[in-house]
Each structure stands twice: as C-alpha cells, then as structure tokens.
Amino acid sequence: MTEPTGPLKGLRVLDLTRVLAGPTCTQMLGDLGAEVIKIERPGVGDDTRGFAPPMMPGTGQSAYFVGANRNKRSVTLDISAPEGQAVLRRLLDACDILVENFKVGTLAKYGFGYEQVHATHPHIIYCSITGFGQTGPYAARPGYDSLIQAMGGVMSLTGEPDGLPQKVGVPVADLFAGLYGCIGILAALRHRERTGRGQQVDIGMLDAHVAWLANQGMNYLATGEDPPRLGNQHPNIVPYQVFATADGHIMLSIGNDPTFARFCEAEGLAHLPADERFATNAARVRNRALVTETLTPVMRRRTTAEWIERLEALKIGCGPINRLSQVFADPQVIARQAVVEMPHPQAGTVKVIANPVRLSETPADYRLAPPALGADTDAVLRDLAGLTEDEIAALRGKNLV
Questions:
Q1: How many Cβ atoms from other residues are within 10 Å of residue 349's Cβ?
Q2: Whole-number mean pLDDT of the chain?
Q3: Do residues 255 and 117 both lie within one domain?
Q4: What CATH number has the domain bearing residue 129?
C-alpha cells in the first residue's frame, strides 16, 4: 500500500458506513492521511456499488461509489455472526476511530454500541451519523437525504414562489452530515491528545440541516415569520438574483449600496439611487418587485458574455449559470485542479473530484483508488487482526468474509 502523507498519517479508521453521509466523512479522513478500513457485507458491499448507471468507464464501479470511497481498503465481513464479531473486535484493537451510520441501537445488538466499545477501548473516537441523532422522539427513524431536506426546511425555501417546494439538486443533507462528522472527529482527536480518552461524536442529519439554514434560519428567529420561497432571489439583498440576458441568463450579485450606485451610473440609471425606493438595500428589499421589473429590460440589452466582461471591469459580482460540462471546462476550475486522475487497477486511471481542502504543507493525497469489494480482506485480516491463512479460509468457507 502506498504510504499516506497527510496530517492524519498514523491514524486508523474502522469504517462501518455506507451510501453517502458516512463515506463522505471517512473519505475526508482518508484524504488527510488516515488509513481507512471499510467493512462491507460479503457478496453485496456498500449499497452505492449498485447505484448505476452510470458506471465509471473500465472500473466495474458505479460513479456514485467512486465519488465517496477513495483512500479506503475494502474488507468483507459478516458482523451479524459471532465469528465476524470476534474478528471485528480484533480489528478494533488496531484502530483509533470508528465511524458508523447504522440505525440507532443496531450495533449494540452485535456488541459494538458506543458504551460497549468505550468500556473496552476508551481511547476510541466513535462517530455515529444517523438521520436524527442518538436521542429524541425520532431517533429510531431511518434518515434519507430528501426526507431530511423536507423536514429540515430547505425545501420550503427552494423553488419559485408559485411553484412546488424543491429539494437541492445534490444530496446536501448527506454531505453536510458527513462533513460535520469529520469536524467533530478532528475536535475529538484534539481532546484525546490532551486526555488520552475518546468520546462519541453524535451527528444527526436533521441537526446538521437546521445548522446550515444560516441567514434564513436567523431571519425566522428574528421575525417569527416563515420566509417565503423567492426562486433565485436573495432574501436579504436586492438585486442579487438571476436575470435574463440577450442570449441566456446571468447571476447578478450587487452586495451593497455603493456597488448599486456604480452599476446604475454605468447603465444610465443614475436617477435610481436618488429614488427612496432604490436608495438603500433595505428599501430595495421592500420594493423587490419594482427593482426586478426596472432592471429586467436593462439586463436584456446585452449577451451574457458582454455583461460579464462589462461588470467584471466595474468590479460588480456576476457569473454565468454553467452546466457541468462548462464547470469542468472552466479555466479557474482547471487551474485549481478540481479534478484529479488516480491509478486504478482495472481502468488504468480514474477521474475523481479533488478534495477542496488545500493544505500548504500536508496536502490531500490520492493514493488508493476506490476498492473492489473485499479486495483487501486477506491482507487486513492477516496483518491487522492477526488471523492465519487457515482461519481466513475457514471464515470464507462459511461465507463470513
């Protein structure tokens, strides 16, 4: 195995996660140098192995799986059987961190709930990622991204005012839960450095979702009123929205009054800032419909490209609304190396989206391609759990690995 180089080098993670929230967390840890041992069901593996099409060319793996499972070693192990549980305990002896996203109480049935693990391995940092956290009336419920987006309020804020509530186009509830889990683990590692003791990191997807309601959540707390859906407009800043251009659309982001005045001066609208309905951002928010109606024909005068050139010269925020083909061809995205190619045993190489955390001294490394199911079972059970070849063969004979 290629040696890790990141800041978490030397730490070992027992990864009992699947689908997206948990694997996002453990992939981040792996990118930062931790050794991640991914435990999967024999013959089946992580559910996302079957989330296809599309498949990543030449890999035999779904694009979904490849996106969240690099820098991991795959071990197949049936932890519902006593023999599998015994092996898992031996692996736990060699690990620093356990990450799981089973339903509340499931791992306790197998002897691996937090209290059980903490009693025998007090140094272990134990991260649980579930839909609703470990406590509360919903704790036992399963959590799914779209369900959390609905219950967490973001769908009520997303979409056109007269249209249906909309979920975000990517699974943000899963992703944020995974990232908050990683942050919690890093904080727990710092605590362990000082005390020698691990602890549980309890991540509920709904908790994380409420946390990132951000300004809209605070708008509600300030007023007691449910914020309306505004389509592509901003609840607190106007104009900060999508406008049609002569050949498409553009995002116009005018964040303060001097910028608005500069825009108006350049476009022959110098009278607007003198109008009390346009003079301040607060006034423009109150007169949102009038501002939009006034600027709509102005924005149709030029093409998107012409607007971008003009507005960038004026240092006014703007941008095209890119399709993914345009995103990945964007010179800034290319310059920042947002896509990297990793060696892959089946495909030769595979493209993955890079880790966005750019560390100057210990950058993320891309040492292990997303693994084939069970590719590392024998090596991990032999080297970390201390099993003999005969013991591994016996487990395989019972379909436990």
A1: 13
A2: 97
A3: no
A4: 3.40.50.10540
pLDDT in tens, 40-58: 999 999 999 999 999 999 9
Whether the bond into 371 is cis, omega within 30 of 0: no
Alpha-carbon gap, residue 102 to 140, rounded angstroms: 10
**Angle at CA 380, nearest 5°, toward 99 and 199?**
25
Say if CB 299 and CB 249 are below 8 A apart: no
Q: 């004026």: which residue's tokens?
A: 314
**Token duo for residue 111:** 């002897």
Q: Judge if 180 and 259 occupy the same domain.
A: no
Per residue in 287-300, pLDDT tens?
Answer: 999 999 999 999 99
Residue 195 lies in a domain: yes
Determine, yes or no, domain membership for 2: no
Residue 206 belongs to domain spanning: 12-212+340-397
Q: Are residues 350 and 275 in the same domain?
A: no
Q: What stretches of 160-286 show up as alpha helix (H) in DSSP? A: 172-195, 205-211, 214-223, 257-266, 281-286
**Residues contacting residue 176 through CB under 8 Å, at least 6 positions apart:** 205, 208, 209, 211, 212
Q: Is residue 218 part of a domain?
A: no
Which three-class secondary structure state does DSSP give residue 61? strand
d(CA 42, CA 32): 28
One domain for residues 246 and 353? no
> What would the two tokens of residue 104 be?
């509340």
Residues 395, 88: Cα–Cα separation, whole Å: 13
For the stretch 7-33, pLDDT in tens is 999 999 999 999 999 999 999 999 999
Query: Which residue type occupies 79?
Result: I
316 pLDDT above the threshold of 80: yes
Share of the chain above pLDDT 90, in %: 99
Q: Which pLDDT score, from 0 to 100, does residue 5 have?
A: 87
Which element (helix H / strand E) includes 29?
helix 21-31
The reported pTM is 0.94
d(CA 176, CA 294): 38
Catalytic positions, written as ranges: 174
